[in-house]
Structures are given as structure tokens and as C-alpha cells.
Amino acid sequence: MTALRVAIVGSGPSGFFAAGNLLEQDDVEVQVDVFDRLPTPFGLVRYGVAPDHPAIKSVTKIFDRTAQHENFRYFGNVEVATHVTAAELAQWYDAVIYAIGASGGRRLEVDGAWLPGNHPSSDFVGWYNGHPDRRELDVDLGVERAVVIGNGNVALDAARILVTDTDKLAGTDMADHALRALHGSAVREVVVLGRRGAEQAAFTPAEVAELGKLPGVDVIVDPADVPEEDKERDKARPPVERNNIKQLRRLAAAEPTGADRRIVLRFLRSVVGINGEGKGGPVRSVSIARNELVEGEDGTVEAQPTGHVDEHDAGLVIHAVGYHGTPIPGIPFDTERGVFRNADSRIVGYDGEPLPGHYVVGWIKRGPSGVIPTNRDCARDTVSVLLADAAEGRIPRSAFDGAQVEKLIAERVENLVEYDGWMAIDAHETALAEEHDRPRVKLTSVDEMVDAALGGSGETPA
Ligand code: NAP
Predict the structure, then answer these.
(1) What confidence score (pLDDT) does residue 461 get?
(2) Share above pLDDT 70 across residues of the chain, in percent, rounded to a whole number
(3) Is 170 exposed, middle or buried (0-12, 13-18, 19+ CB in 10 A)?
(4) What are the tens digits of pLDDT across the range 426-447?
(5) Which of 119, 154, 271, 294 to probe ligand 1 with, by most ligand atoms within 8 A of CB?
(6) Which residues pair with 274 in a beta bridge?
(7) How many Å lie between the centroid of ligand 1 and the Cα of residue 370?
């Protein structure tokens, strides 16, 4: 039997883990083509992981090994829906795995949320990480106080980046435009708002502990916001909650040093309005409601406003309240959850029946949750369902072969970037970084990337 031909749309961690799983198993020969709409692979590892967390990015070494497999091909700078449709992919391949992540940022639905000075975390994070779509984002850091809405790790990333000494950030792969802006930043206080209590925080212990170790930064936690020590009660808490509380107690007990910059963690607070200067002007203050906790119908703990609202000066608001996926024409979408409709890793139609040969993995399957290794298990599940479907004849085989598909893509895509093109970009970025003692200097425009992929200087053509 000829090799099974699988397209993977998206080269972030879930896409690459799925490729690795397909290529490492011995039951059936598989040829894998990975598509990405950008010339650069690795999705959230390159454009989401904070630049001061380089260890997390070392997972790309595994992906590089996968890319060296003789049955692996990378088609970068190819957008599904623009250069090739989902229906065509279904014809060209035996199976398609969608691994497009959830790159759309959610924004709080309150008055003033669209005034200048508001940014969904996806934009802000993409901006400091040099995502080509976000390099022009106008982030005004000439303000003293920023507010970060949300209590997940992305909220902590945003808060930490806003107050970290730029001497430290200068040794990372943060985008140069962000480094320059942060160097001149006037931000002195970042207030992080959790709508529920410290016990319900979505962040994790290592990330909250890290805040307390930032040089030149005081972290302010009101002791009244953290439950008092109670050995029995604490032992019964789930480990993440127990350790979050432990870290928060430490922070609450620490005496402020009078440092120049502060992060203030506030709980049971919701932004209920964002107020601009004049009509439509930039953000100048936020209205913050105090909440209390109530038990929801399904037993979950929910925030409910007490009716007490305060106004606080702020000039920058980061909405770190989650992400949502982006639909692709022809693929059934669950608008509420922001994912492709799926069951047991198979994409399903609006009637709930599987679309033969269509699979999902990662955030576009589960929603935006979990850390990078979570996608390894998720990919294993998807690949085992796909291989079982193939073994049991549930996948219609394509009439196309790999060479025909490559020709079609090359005809349609003017600046196709394959893996050796990415390696040229990588070499270019790391060479630029050498004299500055940084891991890489990121190219942030597609034109620069294409130029470097073709062996050029990486400069934008005139
Ligand atoms: P997240 O962990 O799901 O947190 C989202 C936060 O937004 C929650 O605190 C949530 O509060 C809050 N929220 C949602 N809707 C809200 C609303 N209308 N008003 C106020 N608050 C609202 O998501 P994330 O921070 O975007 O992170 C995504 C995933 O990436 C997570 O699994 C995270 O751990 C992971 N990540 C990991 C790292 C790391 O390992 N260092 C770094 C970044 C991201 P409720 O709980 O009340 O809903």
C-alpha cells in the first residue's frame, strides 16, 4: 500500500507534535506536509511564549528533529483559505489535521473597550514577540499605570514584561520595536485584576513566584485577599491552588521596598467601564467593581458584583481574558467555544457526524488551555484516532501524489518558504544576534523573512 499522505495545517506545538507522532510510529508509512501561513514555523513557541522564558522555547529542538525526517515537508507562507481551500486539501491528501491554534484575542465587553489604549493580550503578546501582524500595534507606554484584566498566566506574562528591567529583556529575543518602546516606558504600576478570588486564580505557582523575584519591582498583595493559613484546609486544596496560595501569602507578607515599579495583584475585582479622554480619546481611567463569590447552579464559584464601584486612573488596559480560534471556510465552527466542532479528535459536521479524513489537535480542538507539553498528549490522541480510521478503511484515499501537490502549491504561492528557507531565516536571525549576546534578533515582516529565506540580507526590499 502507498504511504498515507497527511496535511497538517499549522506548525505550532500541536502541529509539530502531531507530525512527530505520525512519523515516529512504525505501523504504517506516512508522508507529512505541514502548512503555515507565515514563513516561520513554531506558532505560539515563537510568538506566544514570553521572551524571558527561553527554556520553554527549547522544545523547537524536538521539532527540528521531526523536520529532518525524509517524509516531512514544510510549506511556509501558504495560507489555507487564501492560497488553497479546505476542500482542495481534502482532495489532495488522505487526511488533514487542523492545528491552527486560537490566535484571536478576547476583549471584555464593556463600554470603552475599543478606545485607544486597550489591547487584547493576543495583540500585546504578539507585538512584543515580533508577530508580523502585530508589529505596527500602537502601544502607548507613556502612561504611569496599566491595568491587566484576567488572572491566567498570560496576564502575569503581560504584567511582568511591562515592569521588567529592559537591561534584562535586551538579552532575549524580544522584538526590537518592543524593546525600544519598553526602554522609554513611563509605566510604574501594573494592576492585575482577577474577577474571582485568590483561590480561583488560573495562573500557576512558578509564574506567580517569579513576580516576587523581579529586581526593582515590589509586588503588592492585600493580606485580606489571601485565605489565612489553615493546615487541614490547605492540605485539602488541589496542588496548584495550594501552591498559588502559598506564594500569594509570601508576597502579601513581604514589606514593599519602595521600588520604582510595582505589580499590584487585586482579587474579586471586575472592570465594568473604561473611560477615555473626551469623546473617543485614549484611556484615562477604569471603573472597577468589587465582587463577592456565589455558588453557581452547576456548583462552580462565580463572581457577583456587590454594587461598589471605584474609578482608578490608568492609561493602558490589557485584556488577558482568553483566546478564540478563527474559522476556515468549509470547516464547521463552534462560535461559542471558538473551536472547530469536534468529537474524539475528529472534525464533525453540524449534524454531529465526522467529516471523513478531517482531524483537529491543540487549542483549535480543546480551546486555549494547558501548557506546551499538554499538546504532546493531545497530538498522540489525534494521531491514534487518525491511524485507527485509516487502518479500518474509514479514510477515503486521495488520487493525488506528493509531487503533484508540491507543483500545485509552487504554482500558486509566489514566495513559498520550505524548511531549508526557514533554516536560512534562523541562521540569519541568530547571526544578527551574535554580537549582541542575544539568542536571536527576530525579523518581524514577511518580506524580510522571505528575503532571508532566499539567502538575502533580511532587509525589506525597496
Ligand atoms: P486562562 O488560564 O484560561 O485565564 C483566563 C483568565 O481570564 C481567567 O483568570 C479568567 O477568569 C479570566 N476571564 C475570562 N473571562 C473574563 C471576564 N469576562 N472578566 C474577567 N476575567 C475573565 O488563559 P490564559 O491566561 O490566556 O492562558 C491560556 C493558557 O496558556 C493557559 O493554560 C495558561 O496556563 C497557558 N500559559 C502558560 C504559560 C506558562 O506556562 N508560563 C504562559 C502563558 C500561558 P475566570 O477563571 O474567573 O474565568
Answers:
(1) 47
(2) 98
(3) middle
(4) 999 999 999 888 999 999 999 9
(5) 154
(6) 286
(7) 10
